[in-house]
């Protein structure tokens, strides 16, 4: 959370419950506050979730709030896994949309979004130049590919660790090789 952005949204009259550096306990408090912040009848009509935390909270503590709720949209892999688990256990009380697997999400946000945020996050957290460093990319799905491309673009050397690299087609690896010269040699050496 960027506090100045949250303050600007709050100044416009939108309830905001978030601040930079909040603890897990504070985060959970913020989730609960969201449920009572609106001045209408207090009923939910749609849950737009990112990670599944709000969906889990409402289902476990406030199921009465789901009366009249059209459903849930979830945009993360973790949240989607929670939704499938709830469905299998018969605990999912409203229809749900898996936004995470939409082509625009999986092929654009997962691949290209992480290319921006990974390097930015590393630089902010470490204040270290990425060029010349050696990194390990855990997983070679769309997010892993995006991370590898970002690291390569900044001059880092990287190794890919994935339990199912054999499942990736030769054509897909060749396309990645075009973007990241040296990937095939790295893969052969460490596969």
TrEMBL record:
<dbReference type="InterPro" id="IPR000043">
    <property type="entry name" value="Adenosylhomocysteinase-like"/>
</dbReference>
<dbReference type="InterPro" id="IPR015878">
    <property type="entry name" value="Ado_hCys_hydrolase_NAD-bd"/>
</dbReference>
<dbReference type="Pfam" id="PF00670">
    <property type="entry name" value="AdoHcyase_NAD"/>
</dbReference>
<dbReference type="GO" id="GO:0004013">
    <property type="term" value="F:adenosylhomocysteinase activity"/>
</dbReference>
<protein>
    <recommendedName>
        <fullName>S-adenosyl-L-homocysteine hydrolase NAD binding domain-containing protein</fullName>
    </recommendedName>
</protein>
<keyword id="KW-0520">NAD</keyword>
<dbReference type="InterPro" id="IPR036291">
    <property type="entry name" value="NAD(P)-bd_dom_sf"/>
</dbReference>
<dbReference type="InterPro" id="IPR042172">
    <property type="entry name" value="Adenosylhomocyst_ase-like_sf"/>
</dbReference>
<dbReference type="GO" id="GO:0033353">
    <property type="term" value="P:S-adenosylmethionine cycle"/>
</dbReference>
<comment type="similarity">
    <text>Belongs to the adenosylhomocysteinase family.</text>
</comment>
<keyword id="KW-0554">One-carbon metabolism</keyword>
<feature type="domain" description="S-adenosyl-L-homocysteine hydrolase NAD binding">
    <location>
        <begin position="110"/>
        <end position="191"/>
    </location>
</feature>
<dbReference type="GO" id="GO:0005829">
    <property type="term" value="C:cytosol"/>
</dbReference>
<dbReference type="Pfam" id="PF05221">
    <property type="entry name" value="AdoHcyase"/>
</dbReference>
<dbReference type="GO" id="GO:0006730">
    <property type="term" value="P:one-carbon metabolic process"/>
</dbReference>
<dbReference type="InterPro" id="IPR020082">
    <property type="entry name" value="S-Ado-L-homoCys_hydrolase_CS"/>
</dbReference>
């Amino acid at each position: 959370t960027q506090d100045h952005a949250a303050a600007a949204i709050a100044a416009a009259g939108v309830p905001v419950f978030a601040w930079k550096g909040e603890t897990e306990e504070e985060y959970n408090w913020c989730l609960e506050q969201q449920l009572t912040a609106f001045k209408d009848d207090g009923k939910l009509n749609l849950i737009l979730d990112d990670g599944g935390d709000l969906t889990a909270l409402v289902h476990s503590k406030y199921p009465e709030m789901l009366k009249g709720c059209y459903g849930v949209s979830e945009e993360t892999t973790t949240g989607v896994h929670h939704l499938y688990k709830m469905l299998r256990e018969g605990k999912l009380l409203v229809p749900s949309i898996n936004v995470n697997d939409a082509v625009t999400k999986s092929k654009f946000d997962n691949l290209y979004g992480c290319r921006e945020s990974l390097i930015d996050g590393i630089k902010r957290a470490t204040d270290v130049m990425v060029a010349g460093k050696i990194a390990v990319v855990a997983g070679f799905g769309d997010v892993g590919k995006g991370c590898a491309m970002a690291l390569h673009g900044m001059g880092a050397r990287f190794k890919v660790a994935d339990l199912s690299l054999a499942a990736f087609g030769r054509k897909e690896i060749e396309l990645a090789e075009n973007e990241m010269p040296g990937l095939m040699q790295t893969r052969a050496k460490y596969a």
